[in-house]
Amino acid sequence: MHSDRNNDNLLFATGEASYVTDASHTSDLDDQECAHQPLLLLTFKLVLVGVIGASIALLSIANNLILLYTFLSSKRRPERNLTYLTCLSFCDLLISIFYITIMSVQVYAEFFEYFPLFAAWHDCLPILFTLSNVTSATGSFLLVAATIERYLQTMKSARSVFLCKKMSEHRHFGVFLAIMIGMIFRGSIFFEIEIYRLPHCTGLSSMGVVLSQIASNPYYDSIWRFWIRRIVTIFLPFFVLAYCNSAILYSVQSDEAKDQRVKTLMLFLAKGTPRRYVQRPFRPSIQKSPRVRSATRMLIAVVSCYLIANLLDVILATWEYIDGESLAEMSAFYTVATDISSLLSVLSSCLRLPIYLLIGDRLLQIEAIFV
Description:
Elements: H1 42-73, H2 83-111, H3 115-154, H4 158-169, H5 171-186, E1 193-197, E2 207-211, H6 218-272, H7 290-329, H8 331-350, H9 352-359, H10 362-370
Antiparallel strand pairs: 1-2
Helix pairs in contact: 1-2, 1-8, 2-3, 2-8, 3-4, 3-5, 3-6, 3-7, 6-7, 7-8, 7-9, 9-10
């Protein structure tokens, strides 16, 4: 059930190797033997994906439902710039649901050999797999848009101020653009997998998943699936977020250091100057409001969590670029690595609420706690 470079770690860094047969496409299945090949390390998957992963996904669903309700019911939502965070919470909610329906359900069906669940999973897989990938890519680019806007806000040039203002005025267009990018670069997955059925077989061996004829085309596979799509949806968001997050963090630390020097100087002047000459402390231009600083720290934490969760996926994708054959030979390692990467993605979605509660602005904390 493994296909070398066709393992396009599409959603939670889980490749098609988990459920794609050795056949190139449906025309090669006429003489397929009725022997079901179970998932590799099935017992391990039951614990990691079926128990731990599903539990984290359920908690993530609850957390993001709370966040969605908090954002949508907030009376000050328009002035608090919650457009991207609201849409990101919705994407996280869907990602957690898809994790259970795609990954956990497959493990349950195979481990307990329950054919009705196995058949239902196969029937729903093409549409669910496509939606999950579109959602995952959309969430990544929503985070990219929010981070670029905050990055421009920390810059001091007139051009960055102008661009930041334009982005803040057209956030809904940014959401639309993120959705379109997700649909364009991930929507084609629907046409890349097919469900096959073997009438002469029974039970779990009577059906499976195979790459479609278009996905088996060497030009489509190499140029579109392996190069363009991975660069745009895996490498580009990761490195843009890594750069912008580092720049924002440096700017925040620099501002705080400058503010500390200003406070020290003012304290010195206040103690060494007669009281009547002490003016009201001024707020230097570098000092942002507490709400803006809190929002900046919150975004830094969210992006850092995303980068950590997706680091393994980027490493695996890079490895496949450099030497895909060696990675395909280590099937057990690849299975464990992709399952851990999947778990980290859902864990990242689950941690949004704790991050907002610990680092977010006070109004958001109060509203979320009240909910």
